[in-house]
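Thread amino acids onto this structure.
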C-alpha cells in the first residue's frame, strides 16, 4: 500500500532527517499507507477490509476505543522485518514493522521521535 513517489520538497525534508541520524543511518522511505500501533490491530484491519480503508480503520479504532490506533497518511519510515501474512478473500498482505521518523503535515514533512508501528503492503506490490 505504499506509493513511492517523492517530490523535490520531500527529498529535501528527508535529507534533513538523515542529517539528524548518526553515521549508521538506515534507508528512510516515504510512503502512503495504513499504520497501526500493534500487529493485532493490523490483522484486524485486514479482516475488516472490504475495499474501504477508511471504514476498516474506523472499525478498528472503535473496537480499541482509540481514535489513532490505526491511521492512514504519508510518513517517513525505516522498514523493519516482515512479521506475518494476512489475507482477505482476494488480497494477500504482508505485515511489516516500521519505525516512523516523520509525518506529512500541512507545513510539510515534520520529523518526529522514532515510533514503532505496523503496516501492510499487498503481496502483489512487492518487487521480485
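Threaded sequence (128 positions):
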Amino acid at each position: 500500500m505504499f506509493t513511492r513517489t517523492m517530490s523535490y520538497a520531500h527529498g529535501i525534508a528527508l535529507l534533513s532527517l538523515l542529517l539528524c541520524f548518526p553515521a549508521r543511518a538506515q534507508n528512510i522511505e516515504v510512503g502512503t499507507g495504513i499504520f497501526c500501533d500493534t500487529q493485532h490491530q493490523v490483522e484486524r484491519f485486514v479482516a475488516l477490509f472490504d475495499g474501504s480503508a477508511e471504514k476498516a480503520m474506523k472499525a478498528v479504532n472503535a473496537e480499541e476505543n482509540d481514535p489513532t490506533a490505526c491511521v492512514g497518511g504519508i510518513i517517513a519510515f525505516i522498514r523493519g522485518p516482515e512479521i506475518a501474512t494476512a489475507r482477505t478473500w482476494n488480497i494477500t498482505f504482508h505485515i511489516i514493522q516500521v519505525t516512523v521518523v516523520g509525518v506529512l503535515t500541512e507545513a510539510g514533512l515534520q520529523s518526529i521521535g522514532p515510533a514503532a508501528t505496523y503496516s501492510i503492503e499487498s503481496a502483489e506490490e512487492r518487487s521480485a
